[in-house]
Amino acid sequence: MKKLKNIILLLLILLSFSSCKNNNVEKLYVIFNEMKNQYGDSILIKYKNFEILVDAGQNEDAEEVSKTIKENVKDNILDTLILTHPHADHIGGIASGVLSNSGIKSITTWIDSGALYSTSSFQIVENIKHSFIDKGTLYHAAYDFFHTENLSNRIYLDVDDNVYIDLFDTGEYPLPNSTYQGGNINNVSVTFALNYNNTQFFFGGDISKMIEERLENRIDKQYFSKDKFTVFKANHHGSTGSNSLTMLDIVSPNMVLISSAISDNNRSQKGVVSSQHPYPAVISRFRYYTNEIYWTGTNGTFVCSSDGKTCKVEGKGRTIDYYFNNQLVPSLEEKDKPFIETKWFETGK
Ligand SMILES: [Ca+2]
Ligand SMILES: [Fe+2]
Known about the structure:
Largest sheet: 8 strands, mixed
Distance between the termini: 70 Å
CATH class: Alpha Beta
Order of helices and strands: HEEEHEHHEEHEHEEEEEHEHEHEHEEEEH
Strand order of the largest sheet: 7-5-4-3-2-1-16-17
Number of strands: 19
Strand content: 15-25%
CATH superfamily: Ribonuclease Z/Hydroxyacylglutathione hydrolase-like
Helix content: 25-40%
Radius of gyration: 21 Å
Oligomer: single chain
Bound molecules: calcium ion, fe (ii) ion
Number of helices: 11
C-alpha cells in the first residue's frame, strides 16, 4: 500500500513539473508588417532579446516598421539585419530612417546580398550601413558565408534553446560590392531557414522559379522534415513566376505567409476588380499543401508565434480598406482569418 502511495505521489510531482514547463515555454515571434504599396516585405523575428529584421518595406512603410521595432526591440540592439536584395520595396524603409526613428542604438550583424545597385535609395542605405560599420557593426555579404573560412552560415538566436537560422547558398550571390550580371536582381535574394525545435520557416525574398529549382539540389532532402511544422514565406509576394511546386515540395508547408498590399485599383467601392499578388493560381498551389494561408493584405500586420511545436497567427487588422458587394469589409472581422475564409478569397481575384 505504501509503495502505491509513493508511486502516485511521484506521478503527481512529475505531472506538476511537466505542466509548469508547458506554461513557461518561450515563444518565437515572426511579425509581418502590413505594407502600404502593392509590393513590400518587412519581417521582424524575435526570440527573447534577440531580434532579426528582414527587409524594411518601401519608404511609405517606414512608420509601421518603426512602430513594430519600437514595440519589440526593448534593448535598442538590433541583433541582425538582413536586407535580402536592393529593390526599393525591401530597403526603402531603411533609406527613410526606420533605424533612427525606432531608436536602434546598435546593430550587431548586417547582412545583405552584396550586390551594388544604381538607385539613390540604395546609396542612402550604403551610407547608413557604413556609419554602422564605423561604430562596430559586423558586415557580411551573403557570398562571404560560403567562401570565408571559419564563418558559419548558422546564426544562433539562442544556443541553449536551439533557435537558429541557416543561410542557404543559392549559387547566385555576387562577389561582395559587385554589380550583379544575372539580369533579374530578385535572384540575389538572401535565402535562409529559421528553426525552433519542431517548427521551421523558409524565407527566400523575391527569388524566382529558376533559383527555387536550383535549391532542390542545394537543400538537404531531410532539412524540412515531414515530422515538423513547416512555414513557407511566399516568395516574391506570391507571384506566379515564383512559388513553384518544386519549391513547395522542398518545404512541404503546413502554413504559408504572404507579404503584399491591396493594390490601388482594388481599394475603391467597385470592389476587388483586378487580380494581384498573391495570384489565385499561386493560392491554388499552396492549397495542395495547406489551407493555413495568411496575407498582410487581409490580416494587416500579423504575428506568427511558435511554441517550438506548432505555429499560430494573430492579426492586428488591416488599415487599407476593400469592398465586397458594395459593402466595406470590416477589418477586424478578418484580422485572424486564414485567407480562404476572407471575402477577398470569395471574389476569386
Ligand atoms: Ca536585441
Ligand atoms: Fe519585392
